[in-house]
Each structure stands twice: as C-alpha cells, then as structure tokens.
Amino acid sequence: MPAKTAIVAAISAPLFAVASLAAIAGSIAAAPDSSTASICASGPGAGPAATQNLSSAQLANAKIIAQVGVTMSVPMPGETIAIATALQESDLQNLDYGDRDSLGLFQQRPSQGWGTPSEIMNPSYAARQFYTQLLQVPGWRSMSTTAAAQAVQRSAYPEAYEKWSDEATALATEFTGNLTCTPADSGDNTVEAAAVNAAGYHIPAGTPAPIVEVITFALAQLGKPYAWGATGPGSYDCSGLVQAAYERIGVQLPRTTYDQVDVGSPIYSTDELQPGDLLFIPGSDGTPQAPGHVGIYLGNNTLIQAPETGQVVKLSPLSQWVDSIVAIRRIA
Questions:
Q1: What is the model's pLDDT at position 190?
Q2: Backbone angles phi, psi at 324, to 5 degrees
Q3: At 217, is the secondary structure helix, strand, or coil?
Q4: Residue 63: which residues within 8 A CB-CB, separation 6 or more?
Q5: What residues are paired with 236 via a beta bridge?
Q6: Which residues contact 59 (CB under 8 A, 6 or more apart)?
Q7: CB 3.0 to 4.6 Å from 151: which of 68, 137, 174, 217, for a disulfide?
Q8: Is residue 29 pLDDT above 70, yes or no?
C-alpha cells in the first residue's frame, strides 16, 4: 500500500476536538531538575576557574549561560561555545548597545529575528536563543569553538572566538559542576549523539525555539528503558515521554495516550507534519478510535518513541508508522 498522505478516514470527528492550551511563552525559564541531572554524571569539583579578572556581574552572566545549557540538555561542549561567544561579543556584559541594533550578551539583533529588545536583554532568553541555533548546526560538536560560534553568529571576525576557548572551558566546567559523560550512562549525551548521528537526524532549521527545547529534551532520553506508567527521569512509557518533553516548556499534557489524542489541533495529512507534532497509532492495546501509542515527530522523516517493555527510547523512521497513523495533533 503506498504511503498515506491522509490520516485514516475511520477516525471519528470527536477525536479531533480542539482543546485549548495556554500560550507557550518564549521566555520560560526552567530550572535544572532531576530529569536533566542524569544526562551526565558530576565529576570531581573543578575548583575555582582562572577568572580573577572577571567581575561578579560577568561571572553571574557566565553562570546563567551555563545553567541554561544544562536545563536545555545541551551536550558539552555547548556551554563552552556559548560562553566563549559571549566573552567575544560583549565581554560577558549585558550591553544595551552595539553595532547597529545589536544588544545583550550575544549582541543579537532584533532586526535579524533574535527577539524583541526586551527579550534579548534577558540573559536567560538570549542564551536559549543561542543554544537553539547552535543545536541546528550539523556536526557542531566536532567543530572548533570558533567554527561552531561563527556558524551561529556569522560575525565579521570569524576567528575571534577561539582565543576565549580556555577561559570559557574553565567557566563552563565550574558552573556545570564539572559534568562528565560516559557511554555507559543510559541518559548520556554521548549515546544520544551517536544515535542521532547514526540516523542522520538534526533539528530542522526554522523550528520554533519552544519546539527545539521539546525535541532536545526528548533526544536526551534516548537509550532509557521503557516502563509502563513511567514518566521519568530514569524510564518512560510512550505518553510519559511526551508529557515530560512538553512539560519542559510549561505545557501540561494529560497523562495517557487516550487523553493526549484530544489535545491541541488536528492535522489531517502527513504532508503537513511539523516538528513537535504528536503521532498516534493503535498500538497493541488501542484502536483507531482510541489509539494506545504515541510518538513525537522530529522532522526529517524521523520520530522518537518509547516503544514497549524490553525496549528503550529510540528514533524510528516515519515510514514504519505512516500506514498505521490514526491521528496527528499539534500542541502549539
């Protein structure tokens, strides 16, 4: 049977009733919690970084940048790249001026779509915007600090970031608790990156920042075991993973697949899929009218799911699901 471009016609209209959701605030600031703590293990304390020339305000800004990275489950060396960028662009000062309309820690420009002036002047928002763009750069983890920073900033001085690499590394290590990752850690970003790279997946350009945060959190759970009724942080079932991912941006979804299928707006064709959409199939214990399994569409014909007992959170090609999809919901 050819791949469907329309959802199974047998779905009853009530399944697509639109439930109202609170608007997603682009400036939501989530504090680190146990769901991100398992991504890497904390190593021995790094001790004071060699940053005696920085003021308390500069150190506070570096700490915000690092902690936003941890909250977003950004793998190392993301925090180093972000801090090096802010050292070059603003000397870690939240400037209310700059070249043309550039503002803030990263000298982001409202006219280039980075946000409103007031948003950009919020250090947490500015850091999230930087990480959001960094995560969309293919292969950024294998780049030099200056190459990764330049891919985001597109500076007129592309080689300027590298000189800050050592100081940024010291600051990132200090403010993330000297996080260290090993492949044996089931929540480790080394494992996550290997799985994502093997699938050839990267977050599509233009994905809204809140959805990037949803996807980034979900990707950080790759390799964790399925457990019926589990909502993390050590294990998940399918709807528990979806619920936890959207909770990262302040959206409270119902607990079960049977209720999640009624939330948000209906999408009637796989041709209209966008990253972050929820995909529903009957599964082993559901029906077309009351689907029992859900995954998150990531873009690039890829989805993430917590499949069943004995398996782990994993990426799957859309082609494996397309003939079974009975509902698609957009939660934004």
A1: 43
A2: -115, -10
A3: helix
A4: 175
A5: 226, 231
A6: 51, 92, 171
A7: 137
A8: no
Neighbouring C-alpha atoms within 13 Å toward the C-beta of 182: 5
- CA distances 50 to 83, 169, 273, Å, are 14, 10, 48
306 alpha carbon, distance to own chain's centre: 17
Q: Please say whether the beta carbons of 88 and 76 come within 8 A.
A: no
Which distant-in-sequence residues (6+ apart) come within 8 Å of 131 by Cβ? 68, 69, 72, 74, 78, 82
Q: Residue 9 has which token pair?
A: 């016609």
Alpha-carbon separation of residue 88 from 107, 168, 175, 313 (angstroms): 10, 10, 19, 39
Q: Which two tokens stand for residue 147?
A: 């190459």
CA 105 to chain centroid, in Å, comes to 21
- Evaluate whether 218 touches 277 at the Cβ level (below 8 Å): no
Residue 329 · residue 266 · CB < 8 Å: yes
Task: Give the 3-state DSSP-derived string for 77-115, with helices as H, strands as E and coil as C.
Answer: CHHHHHHHHHHHHHCCCCCCCCCCCCECCCCECHHHCCC
User: Over the stretch 274-300, which tens digit does the pLDDT of each residue have?
Assistant: 999 999 999 888 899 999 999 999 998
- Residue from 3, 4, 148, 154 nearest 76 by CA: 148
Which tokens sit at 255? 């607990």
